[in-house]
């Protein structure tokens, strides 16, 4: 652990020093780029707003660092006399969580040609650095020949890489490891749609209308090995259609619908891909778990409980998910909603199951430059499982203060409960509640 922390510190200092040298006499702003600070809040797809004159390769090095203090209690309803080692909860108390850190490298390679790369320097699942993903973004084709398809590219963007899929709008507001400045709350949604796959997406944005189609190989962990069915993987299709308009200085409206669907894939990770982990550490985590590989009980560790507080419907090999996201902002008051409908199955199942997630959040931002905010979110998930219908409900209250555009402090109260789980399950009458304090630096 100590060597990993030292390596993280060395890498961060080297890139920070390089960043200062590379940017001493240049602006940090890039074309068609979502700012990583307060200015990026309520920005969804990268804006199609500029293609400046190219005067050489420009490197922007940034990053994020985030730390939480957790004061949460948890319990389940299994009677003490009937408890087994697989549903006895770990004892948790109040203290700081592991600090998380990101490193971002964005490079203007040519006119209208930009690269993005994000590395998790430290995360809940991996205390050592590893690459989350990256992509090439094309907003202009002048690097091929000046004026090529200029009328089309005025409204078109192409992204290619091993990258975060653009399914739904909720992933633009979620915390991405240490990048938590866009999220007005501490936790993400219960069913957290996020995955990184190799693919390409094509966008067309014009007069407020947004259209996107994309394809990926449907795999989180890339390899060429064939599975038992003789296939190396599968394919996923993505699409988004929406409208986003600033009608007046005070009033903005956005509505999008998104689709993610697969044929057969070896293992789908749409709701389990985030290795950064949940913000609610060790909640409803058993002291031991049954390891199917060794067919024995093992002590629970941080790496095999990093998704605590989240829900995965276990659509391992086939999935179709649809998400609708309305967003309304009037003055300092904003509403963001999520209506998600997913169905699918694992290869061992003959029939599809279905899951519904609903979430609504209301935020009020105030102060001369909206440096303060208060808000609430209600989030529910109902899913068909092998044992019957499972229901999860979460209520969150949050307040935040931007000390500067790069520094955010927020406090959240969370209350989450489980219903429908059988009495031999760790989630039987499970619940957790308490406070989370989070400090975020992003630049």
From TrEMBL:
It comes from Winogradskyella vincentii. Keywords: Signal. Residues 1-22 form the signal peptide. The keyword Signal applies. This is Phosphate-selective porin O and P.
């Amino acid at each position: 652990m100590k060597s990993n922390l030292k390596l993280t510190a060395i890498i961060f200092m080297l890139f920070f020093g390089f960043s200062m040298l590379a940017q001493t006499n240049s602006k940090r702003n890039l074309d068609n780029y979502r700012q990583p600070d307060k200015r990026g809040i309520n920005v969804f797809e990268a804006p199609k707003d500029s293609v400046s004159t190219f005067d050489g390769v420009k490197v922007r090095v940034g990053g994020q660092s985030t730390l939480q203090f957790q004061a949460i209690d948890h319990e389940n309803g299994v009677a003490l006399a009937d408890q087994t080692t697989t549903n006895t909860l770990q004892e948790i108390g109040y203290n700081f969580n592991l600090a998380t850190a990101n490193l971002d490298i964005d490079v203007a390679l040519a006119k209208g040609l930009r690269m993005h790369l994000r590395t998790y320097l430290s995360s809940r699942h991996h205390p050592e650095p590893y690459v989350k993903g990256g992509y090439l973004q094309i907003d202009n084709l002048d690097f091929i020949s000046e004026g090529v398809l200029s009328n089309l590219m005025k409204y078109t963007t192409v992204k290619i890489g091993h990258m975060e899929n653009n399914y739904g709008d909720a992933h633009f507001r979620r915390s991405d490891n240490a990048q938590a400045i866009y999220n007005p709350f501490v936790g993400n949604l219960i069913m957290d749609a996020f995955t990184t796959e190799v693919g390409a997406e094509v966008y067309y944005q014009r007069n407020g209308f947004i259209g996107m189609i994309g394809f990926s190989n449907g795999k989180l962990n890339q390899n060429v090995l064939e599975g038992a069915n003789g296939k190396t993987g599968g394919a996923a299709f993505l699409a988004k259609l929406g409208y986003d308009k600033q009608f007046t200085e005070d009033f903005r409206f956005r509505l999008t619908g998104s689709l993610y669907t697969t044929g057969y894939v070896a293992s789908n990770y749409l709701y389990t891909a985030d290795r950064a982990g949940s913000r609610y550490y060790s909640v409803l985590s058993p002291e031991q778990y049954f390891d199917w590989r060794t067919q024995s009980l093992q002590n629970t560790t941080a790496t095999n409980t990093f998704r605590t507080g989240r829900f995965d419907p276990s659509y391992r090999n086939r999935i179709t998910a649809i998400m609708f996201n309305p967003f309304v902002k009037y003055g300092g008051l904003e509403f963001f909603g999520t209506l998600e409908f997913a169905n699918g199955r694992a290869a061992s199942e003959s029939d599809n199951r279905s899951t519904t997630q609903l979430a609504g959040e209301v935020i009020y931002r105030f102060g001369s430059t909206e440096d303060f905010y208060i808000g609430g979110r209600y989030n529910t998930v109902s899913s068909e499982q092998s044992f019957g219908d499972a229901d999860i409900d979460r209520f969150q209250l949050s307040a935040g203060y931007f000390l500067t555009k790069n520094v955010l402090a927020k406090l959240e109260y969370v209350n989450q409960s489980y219903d429908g789980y059988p009495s031999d399950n760790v989630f039987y009458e499970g619940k957790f509640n308490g406070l989370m304090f989070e400090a975020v630096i992003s630049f």
